[in-house]
């Protein structure tokens, strides 16, 4: 399980390096989630997940409110959720989730990022079968036993609970995200180090130093694209 959390940390650290980009992407994601149903997280589970994620990335309230106001207003901007899959150097695997209002722009940009950085796009399903959709929730100042007891009292059986880097991490089925977080909140836990619905690789690989550098350029190029919301991969970066 350690590799999974380390990869989430790596991705989050990379994203945190450019807050303006993060805020812009969250603005789109919040707007799209709010347009799917009511712009109220208590009645719109998709929106609630996005807002919980936004909190762990310290997205300002002004950004959130602006996206919600846009969804409540007369905006008819339509976004499509598209997933692209591909391979990086040495057969590494990459999943790219996008939200786009221009499909004709997104696909060529994603393909170009792959081609220019030692990778290539695959067909739908060529990579995703090696990943598992997973809810990941992390917190500090708790032990594994304490978290296990909280979840047991809530009658929740999750995939795993591990301790790493001074955090306790819960891995659960995607449809358990809200139940797990609510159980933890009811036990007095209000701050989370991670709260994600993510794709975790079933097996991770390490790359030679020079190849790892090329792979990082590929991930950076993909994450820099306007329409890309999430990038998942199966590479464990060296410490």
* Widest sheet, order of strands: 3-1-2-8
* CATH A-level architecture of the domain at 80-129 and 203-233: 2-Layer Sandwich
Bin the helical content: 40-55%
H/E element order? HHHHEEHEEHEEHEHE
Beta-strand residue fraction? 15-25%
Straight-line distance between termini = 16 Å
> What do we call the CATH homologous superfamily of the domain at 80-129 and 203-233?
YebC, transcriptional regulation domain
Low-confidence stretches: none
Specify the number of helices. Answer: 8
Looking at the structure, the CATH topology of the domain at 80-129 and 203-233 is Alpha-Beta Plaits
Subcellular location: Cytoplasm
Domain TACO1/YebC-like N-terminal: 3-73
InterPro entries: Integrase-like_N (IPR017856), TACO1_YebC-like_2nd/3rd_dom (IPR048300), TACO1_YebC_N (IPR049083), Transcrip_reg_TACO1-like (IPR002876), Transcrip_reg_TACO1-like_dom3 (IPR026564), Transcrip_reg_TACO1_YeeN (IPR026562), YebC-like (IPR029072)
Domain TACO1/YebC-like second and third: 79-235
